Amino acid sequence: MNKGHSPPATPAATPVPQPYHRDSRRDFIWLTLGWLASLFALAASGFATLRSLVPNVLYEPSRRFKAGRPGDYPDDTATFIEEVRLFIVRKGNSYRAMSGICPHLGCTVNPTVGKYPFLCPCHGSHFDPNGAVVSGPSPRGLAWHLVSLSKDGRLVVDMDQTVTHDKTLVIKA
Amino acid sequence: MDSLRKLYPWFALLGLAVGGLVLAGYYKDEFREWKRWQQEYAAQELNRATTPEQKEQARALPIEIKQIVLPELQRVDRCTTCHLAVEDSSYAGVKQPLAYHPNHARHPFEKFGCTICHQGQGRATEREAAHGRVAHWEHPMLAMKYIEASCAKCHAATDVPRSPLLARGRALFEEQGCIGCHKLGGFGGNLGPELDKVGAKRSPEWLAKHFKSPAELVPGSGMPPVKRSDADVAALTLFMLGQTGERLTEYYVSMKTIPGPDIGQRLFGQKGCIGCHSVGGKGGTVGPALDGVTQRRTTDWIVKHFRDPAAISPESVMPKFNFTESEIRSLASFLGSLTGADVLSFMKIPAQASPVERGRAVYLKYGCGGCHGTSGEGGVPNHNAKSNQQIPPLTAANDLADVFLESFITEGVPEIGKLDPNGPKPPIYMPGFGDKISEGELADLISYLRSLKP
Amino acid sequence: MKSLKQIWLTFAGTRVGQSIFRVGLPESNLGRMQAMVSSFLLHLHPAKVHRHSLQFSYTLGLGLISLYLFLILCITGVALMFFYVPSPEHAYDNMKDLEFVVSAGMIARNMHRWSAHLMVLCVFLHMCRVFYTGGYKPPREFNWIVGVGLFVMTLVLSFTGYLLPWDQLAFWAITVGTNIAGYAPVVGKKIQFLLLGGNIVGESSLLRFYVLHVIVLPAAVVFMIAIHFWRVRKDGGLSRPGEPDVLVQQSETGPLSTSKTYGLMELARGTSPAVGLKPEDEVPVWPHLLFREILLFLATMAVVMFLSVFWNAPLEEFANPTHPPNPAKAPWYFLGLQELVAYSAFWGGVAVPALLLVALVALPYLDHQRVGIGVWFARERRVAVTIFTICVVAAVVLTAIGTYFRGPNWDWVWPWAASAVTPH
């Protein structure tokens, strides 16, 4: 009915009989204990709910993976591995891994023929064979990742480790 | 107003109860067995580390669930969450779960995982559940005794040179005439259930026990017990366990590193080789006959010829089929088997043999021996059958005219006379083979039956 | 405690605080009642409530517990949705991941499962309570019908959720359950076909059940709960003995409710209480009802958490259409019907459920004498109480038989015998 206009904030001016017996120390303890425990339970449940959303396992390709035998890659080319969007660059006995993800906004770069081998189709960033930006909006060059050799003779790329473009893995024939 | 005050202790009590239960839930969720093993592994690594760099690495080992995602095998294996050292040979001989897994070069873990061979529950991260020894999980870990059964998921039984057990199982399967009543790979009889997925459905214990006394596990089963040694029953069980009906995707099929003649035989049929080449006098005449071809040519020549026929014999009109290396080796292996050194006897009738010999092969092919005995001696029990509660021997075939024999084989004998007219129907009857057996096979079979002496 | 309150008061007194809470933290009964009508979350309550309605022995808190369970179900349900894909390929694996790799995943699933079972039970018991205390009598006839609707919705919600784990238990319970529905004449088979999106439980059934379970039915239940609560207030609060007889007056503009409960308006203007209500029988909702509500919520949570920490929700083998378990059982609340179907498909599948539903809906219009309201098992209602009790006992006995006493081939087994199938 007259819920439309809000009642004024109540000043606690007039003394009114209190519903609680606030003088009782025991009541105070019970209430405090109850509220603290309940609020703890509430906070902990909220935290657990948030925590559950942090994944414990990922179904995406591993950031550190085996990329096959060195011999699988033809000499003097950049071979694109679609699954992880990464180029394995081989020159003779030296191996490097360059990210195929444009640092601008995460699109996948295309190898194009012409002066600059790598072009991002989304916003037109060009990268030279060392991954450095030649033109376009990309703030950085393409990242290079650490390549190592596993015990069973396979290339291992660690996408969590970024290196400079001249760091290579040399495999003795 | 006092009524409310009385509730205050309840408020505290219930609040504490809920808070305590939240803590208990957290404890149960957070403290898992696998974390202990990862700590143990980290400690071992630290112990083994010699350089400061290695020590640093050992300290930085994360405590996390590890998994191998195998979309093509429809599996996620988390076994390496506890079995952390499977790839590190320096852990050879260490107690489980931190032991090294030898011999994985051909089946790398990142492509095969663990459960495709060992079974168990790959997604589980608790020991009993992961090993599949819990209620409601159908595939507990395969005992090492039967582990070779898993080879048969990809490899043909005859293709695994290091598993004589599997080959023995397959041979026994043929000898026993199982195919007379059971279908495997779309071929066989209808009296018993199909066996294509039997390995996924039954446990090793069940299978072994069932072979010895079928009726004990399946009431009313008419299947005769397999009267063989324990070792033979184990081999047969192992062969059955490998029949899981799992379909593997192209990657795994192409990875069959042990090519076998049966794959070659299949290819031989699929590619229509017989259109130009003849085997045993049957087939086309455009190309040369292939009997004994491996005696005329070296394996190297055959392999090179398959890769590109024109490259090795310029006159050849044979097309380039673009076979994979594995397929080429399978075909070569099959051609080699044409000389007679053939392990897959039951699928193939020796071409240049007497009618009786060919009839014997037909007898094995259709699994007649499953009921009539390895050499037609009969004697398999058939409860309440008029013929002495047994399947009669076939040695009386000589007394019957061809027409009768033919009709028995093609039409079958669906109604078996009862010994006790009020008793149950005898479980085994003769199914008709008319829609399966060819005219030639029928004639050969009859020749074989006539050759049987009492 | 004191300083916490001080912080609160300081905040509530600021311009921002006032704009949000409007009345601050009230210090007097008047202030508390103002808060009740001016706060959205609190205005679902009246400002004052009759003492009788606060008696636990009268309500047993069943309606509120049902509401709380529904809230727990909504919250845990949303949490579970983050980890669930409604497809036969993924659903079962999602369950395994909840158990083995998602933090707090198993406990969330357990809470959802146990709350669902408890909710079916509590809604049923709430209905029994309302019957035994005559709560459906005028003017509350319609609210009883809304309540019956909510009971049916609760069953359907639970039933649709049953399929989602896509294990043997789920698959066969839904197969059996929908086949019971298929016995209904004329429309039965069509309803079954429509519900499953095919002739057998399959991919489309899972998707349909999922959509029904996570959006259609919960939305409908929220709407019906709103009506249910609205009517509780508009029909004069909870039933109690000695209510005024005439609650609806005719006027020129049609029926006009005078059964108004105490709002702030009367108090603020200093009007006297409405007929039949003595001021000393009424207490402010804040704190008397609110505190009890919090207490009841804690108690509900405690029970749900206790069950969830110590007993895991079941998950059987991956659904396998070629290997039905023996016996294949519907969810437990339908086992009474399944037991009846075992005797007669017509009676179990059609007649009994239809008659029960019609009887429940017609009840407040058949039994409309305003006697024995607000008392448990009133003497004047001996006949009605007896009939209802017979029905309840029959339902409970049949359900118990179906759940505990039926083994392979629906043969009688003793639950304590070793081979007894444990119910889920």
Describe the 3D structure.
The complex is a heterotrimer of chains A (173), B (454) and C (424). Chain A has 173 residues and is α+β, with helices and mostly antiparallel strands. Chain A is built from one helix and eleven strands, in the order αβββββββββββ. Chain A folds into two domains: 20-54; 64-170, 3-layer Sandwich (Rieske Iron-sulfur Protein), CATH 2.102.10.10. In chain A, strand 5 and strand 6 (118-119) form a beta hairpin. The termini of chain A are far apart. In chain B, the strands form three sheets. A two-stranded antiparallel sheet of chain B has the order 1-2. Helix content of chain C is 61%, strand content 3%. Chain C contains 17 helices and four strands. Chain C is globular. Chain C starts with a helix and ends in a 20-residue tail after the last helix. Chains in contact: A-B, A-C, B-C. The interface between A and C is medium-sized, with 27 and 36 residues.
Q: How many separate helices of chain A?
A: 1
End-to-end distance of chain C = 46 Å
**What is the chains' assembly state?**
heterotrimer
The third-level CATH topology of the largest domain in chain A is Rieske Iron-sulfur Protein
What is the name of the CATH class of the largest domain in chain A?
Mainly Beta
- What general form of chain A does the structure show? elongated
Helical content of chain A stands at: 10-25%
Sheet bearing the most strands of chain C, described? 2 strands, antiparallel
- In the CATH hierarchy, the architecture of the largest domain in chain A is 3-layer Sandwich
